[in-house]
Amino acid sequence: MEKYNHQLRESWEKNAPAWTRSVREEKIESRNLVTNKAILDSIVELNPNKVLDLGCGEGWMTRQLSPLGIEVTGVDYSASLISEAKKSGETFHQLSFEEFSANPELVGKNYDVIAYNFSLLSEDLLPILNASKKVLKENGTIVIQTLHPFSSETYEDGWRVETFDQMGDDYEMSMPWYFRTVSSWYRTFKESDLDLVDIFEPVHPEKKQPMSFIFVLK
Q1: 102 and 158 in contact (C-beta within 8 Å)?
Q2: What does the domain layout of the chain look like in residue ranges?
């Protein structure tokens, strides 16, 4: 598992320039048509004052939520992505999920919402979910957007590879990520003592296929 986690972190650092261009030049259809709006709507309807974006990348979510008067803090492992994110002038921390899990209050506390936007990609999620609860305000909410298993070739837990082939030729390295079935997600939440209070399945407007799962937890 550690081998895959190392490759996962390395891929984000190497692909940081390409990913930043993909997001900022709006090259990813699923984000533009479905998943960007879906995660923002899920967060905004909770009326938060303070949001923690774990796995913030180049800071997209912060740029969307800050103009609404929401205080957003971003966390990411990649130094290159954090450098890009800081250009927006908001608060960002360069930390791995392991570092956050060991000392979550490094990024503050009393968050109304903690968001993971396609950023829970490792096999063992219990440490980071348990750490998240420590900096969540009482009655706060965790919102997770992840890939929908609808188009999955084999419906079973396991490591897979994202090649970024559909995003252009600038990506230097494939990315391993850990796929979970819906029942596996549910068991993970139960083991973390998190209550699943809602599920959304945003649908592609033309293909009429689900593009993601959004889990809302307390």
Answers
A1: no
A2: 1-217
What are 163's two structure tokens?
A: 């090649």
- Residue in 132, 124, 118, 121 with CA at minimum distance from that of residue 202: 118
Rounded to the nearest 5 degrees, what angle is found at the Cα of 26, between the Cα atoms of 200 and 213?
Answer: 15
* CATH architecture of the domain with range 1-217: 3-Layer(aba) Sandwich (3.40)
Beta bridge partners of 74: 53, 92
- Can you tell me the distance from the alpha carbon of 15 to that of 174, in angstroms, rounded to the nearest whole number? 9
pLDDT of 197: 98
Strand pairing of 196-200 and 212-217?
antiparallel
Give this prediction's pTM: 0.94
Mean pLDDT by 10 residues, the chain (218 residues): 90 93 95 98 99 98 97 98 93 97 98 99 98 98 95 83 80 93 97 98 95 98
